Amino acid sequence: MSKDAAKKLAERGSARSHRPTGNKFVKYIGTNWAIDTTPLPKQSKVAPFAAARRDAVAEAFQGKIVVIAAGPELARSNDDFYRYRPNSAFAHLTGWGSSTVSDSVLVIDARGKKQKSVLYFRESAGKKSAEFFSNSQIGEFWVGFRPNLKQVAALLGIQTKSLSKLDADLAEHKKKNVLTLEKSTKLVEFVSELRLIKDSYEIAEMKKAVAASIKGFESIVKNLSAATKHPRGERIVEAAFYAEARAEGYDLGYGTIAAAGSHACTLHWVDNDGPVKPGELILVDAGVEVESLYTADVTRTLPINGKFSKLQKEIYMAVLEAADAVFAMAKPGVTYSEMHKTAMKVIAQKTADWGFYKGGYEESLKPENQWHRRWMIHGTGHHLGLDVHDCAQARREMYHDHVLEEGMIFTIEPGLYFHKDDLMVPKEFRGIGVRIEDDVLVTRTGVQNLTAKLPRKPEEIEAWMAKLKA
Ligand code: GLY
Ligand code: MN
Ligand code: MN
Q: Considering the entire predicted model, what is its pTM?
């Protein structure tokens, strides 16, 4: 299709609603509005933290112009868009969270001794423009308040400029001196690794995300009985959590896994269209993303009728033992890989004790065997923050092979999953899946469980569920 034809088709959509046009109308609709006397916003607490992060980028890329784009809105279908969510590196380096204007761009000029940063964004065009009433994607008649340059500068403590100036400003620099996330792997790695250790602002935001997520789990328990009465009870569970995510935060940090019965064995079960049956377990993996865009990542496996059966409890306790073994050894100086090995030793021992394979757990732990991994194929944890799988572009030596340091936040999430058609395990194990996932902060001497307020032990879970259902 030619460019002209594509433009014509795109314009056809917006022409459908027959908005009035012409200079006379623009003038008429642009007048007789009260002057906005709202004072400038107070500077956000994140501002000095974001400035320090930009300093770190400038130091690493001396002499360059670093460009970090927030990214465009993504179309769901036709002219319907997903809720906007900026790129995480952009959010980290500006401190701008859920209220980020789409297509904004951060430019860090690292040529001088002290970096100079400018945040370019599409500011409100004001009520005198045609955009105000005629642009359904960004006009304030349609989407509500959009900030001006001064307001965002005051909020984030950064120089702001109109997005319309960006191309001309960048054109002043030689192309090879301009680094973007699309062009520079080094930059991608650096901004990912910059998030490995959380500052005090980030830790506080993570605690908010966890608190909101705990409310979400409480709401799930309150809705479990209703879920058992609906043919797609998993959706009732998913929706109960989502209501809290929207009420208490910005959104979900990732698609909720509400996996009842044997669905728990599908690691990323997000269809959530199955029934919730008393007597079975339900595995729920869900996290609230707060307005600053930090997310929790929590899993609890609950007995739907409020009480674990003997075998459910036995499997649950095996997973809990694996998790607790990691909690006991995680501290500054140990590596990610060592934590994984610790969990795997317990998983191998348990599955060997149950007699699921011959040869003993030590044989299974040998790299060439790994028989126990049939029942826990995923990793034991990952960094957590602005992204659910945070710092994912960090180099291996900075992640899996790196020692833990104070201020890191990650998950501990062992599991055991016995598929309903797994002929290697006894019938009674089949269709049971358990995962326990907590979010932890590395302290000077160990780890603090940020999700400790959500019960983990079977008796505590039963008591908590009984109390919420009462
Ligand atoms: N919710 C995805 C994960 O646990 O990694
Ligand atoms: Mn996780
Ligand atoms: Mn999870």
A: 0.96
